[in-house]
Amino acid sequence: MSGSDLFQICLYLAVLLACVVPVGAYMARVLDGSLTFLGPMERLFYRVSGVDPAAPMTWTAYAGVLLWFNLAGTLAVYGILRVQHLLPLNPQSFGPVDPHTAFNIAISFATNTNWQNYGGETTLSYLTQMLALTVQNFVSAASGIAVLAALARGLAAKNSTSIGNFWADLTRTTLYLLLPLSIGLALLLVGQGVIQNFDSYVPVAGTQQVIPMGPVASQVAIKQLGTNGGGFFNVNSAHPFENPTPVSNFLQVISILLIPAALCYTFGKLVNDKRQGWALLAAMLIIFVPLVFLEAQFEQGNLEGKEVRFGTANSAVWAVATTAASNGSVNSMHDSFTPLGGLIPLFLMQLGEVVFGGVGSGLYGMVIFAIIAVFLAGLMVGRTPEYLGKKIEAFEMKMASLVILMPPVSVLLGTAITVTAPMGLAGLQDRGPHGFSEILYAFSSMGNNNGSAFGGYGANNPLVNSLGGVAMFLGRYWVAWPVLAIAGSLAKKKTVPVGPGTLPTHTPLFTGLLVGAVLLVGMLAFIPALALGPVVEALQ
Amino acid sequence: MIRACLTMLVLFTVLTGVVYPLAITGLAQLLFPWQAGGSLIVEGGKVKGSELLGQWFTEPQYFWPRLSATATAPYNAASSSGSNYGPHHPDLQKAMRERTVALQAGRTGMPPIDLITASGSGLDPHISPEAAEYQATRVAAARHWPVERAKQRIAARTEGRQWGWLGEPRVNVVLLNRDLDR
Question: What is the ipTM of this complex?
């Protein structure tokens, strides 16, 4: 690795960590309701919708509203995709999207996955990109942060049935956090050359080339900040119009992890013990940092599918960041990575998207792993496990098991069904172990709500669209629902005073235990599948 | 509750799906009109390309860009795509071999890796300074220039790391080839 590569990677990590405290502290103020500078607009939302933002919600009410709201969003996206040819702002006259493709896209964007079975510049009208996709980029991200806030309240509350109000969390997160950050980032990106217009595609005189246009910057900004990852164009942030310069690349790759990393600090503030947030962040970094350097090493000298302006180091940092977070945008083609270079993004997704993970969803996944870790420790010494002063009992453990079991089940079952079906195999570009990796990557990505792909696999067929749609749905709500159940159950409990038998959960010892739990669960579930794909390929 | 869900969805759609992109478009057109419009190269009222999008050159008197895997023709900007070949894919090996042979016409030595691989977007406008240097003799010979003249053009178009730190040094092939014809 050259000195410049090393420097750029270290600069990235340093800037990211420097943002954790200011952004984290700001988000804590967004979520506890102490910010009011957009009060009139906020109140307008509540008044028109007829909701009371101060009304307490039980966990079932909170989860119900979350699900109904997301379902309404899914149907709206599906509807717009099916009738886009009848709507305005369609200068290229794209036709309606196929039902099975539209089904997959609708679930994909509502669940914050942003798996893309289509090429944006050849399929979607500008209006569809704005009304259907950009909107879901905002509200699916806000929904994830809302669930995390609810879980933190459940941990902090005593003898309470309420875990907050979904509408307040959703509205405040969008208005005070996502929208201002997106406006700033979008304008910075336009300054670097990301396009933002409503023109028709422009033919180049004397050549066959036709230059695509569209409102790109506004969507790219939120796709990175909200860990959505769905690109305006087919090749996502490898496209020079989505990511034209090394500076635009740096801004975007910082944005991928900005909110997930800072939320650790927010979590510490919300549970009134900042050390707990630092311990979770430390666990994430212990897995993340070595993988960044390994990835840069594995990809050195491999420029197939990479852009000259970014080089291999920036492509490697991006690949690890985008799969650590459930972002899924790419600035290089993961399918053309070396076998071990492709294994790292694959494995990071399979860890359940908890090393940073999606905005909100990654951290609530990590808190579930913390509950698993205290349970393991409790088993070893024969005491009832506790986390943040709350006793972890049978109900919490059942829910936590559901959370960690569901993604492997949908990933492995989806892969297994697809590799046995002729329709599933028809889209393969590579045969042998790399072909298997392509399918495993597809379901790891959808089942964990990531959205990146080994793009050589033509996944736009009814089988993969339907199976993947189900996997994305389960990967989101089968996780969010039990997390809210745990939040509700913990909120009702009283806090146990710290005693000599309490396992402190802010120490290096506990962080080590947490890292062990994450890696162990991931490896137990996926080593056999990984052995058939990238490992065999690396040995060839 | 259904009413609240639908109303909220409509409100967020108006705010984040209409007001937000329109406001960004307005501000972008005000602050950075050229960038927001695609960094277009306009000459005599005609659009000759974009500074950000590569174009396909095959004649010996021009610098060649990287390979492009876009559908139907290289550098098809309306359909961005990488090759997505796995690292052991036979077609990838074949493409690299053929490209190497084409580049080695009239000279020896292995070409830099970026010249024999396809970019992720298929639209990469850049090659490395080494990749430009590698082609200097061919371009100069085809134009009956001394090699130094071609190398001067390369030097004038070579960009360093942005802000001194970020990314990789590079040469914009579209702009470099326009310089050659001036």
Answer: 0.96
Whether A333 and chain B come into contact, CB under 8 Å, resolves to yes
Q: Which residues pair with A408 in a beta bridge?
A: none
User: Which pLDDT belongs to residue B138?
Assistant: 95
In chain A, the number of structural domains is: 1
What is the distance in angstroms between the CA of the first residue and the CA of the last residue of chain A? 24
Distance between CA atoms of residues B148 and B169, nearest Å: 20
CB contact under 8 A, A314 and B167: yes
Q: Do B79 and A122 touch (CB under 8 A)?
A: yes
Has residue A540 got a pLDDT over 90?
no
What is the C-alpha to C-alpha distance for residues B94 and B111, in angstroms, rounded to an integer?
Answer: 15
Structural domain boundaries enclosing A181? 21-272
pLDDT over threshold 80, residue B106: no
**Residue A469 in contact with partner chain B when CB distance is under 8 A:** no
Mutate to test the interface with B, among A182, A309, A437 (most CBs of B within 10 A): A309
Tell me whether residue A279 is in a domain: no
- Decide if A436 is inside a domain: no
d(CA B148, CA A430): 45
- Domain assignment present for A395: no
Expressed in angstroms, the distance from the first to the final Cα of chain B is 68
The C-alpha of A522 sits at a distance from chain B's nearest C-alpha, in angstroms, of: 25
pLDDT single digits (tens) A132-185: 999 999 999 999 999 999 999 999 999 999 999 999 999 999 999 999 999 999
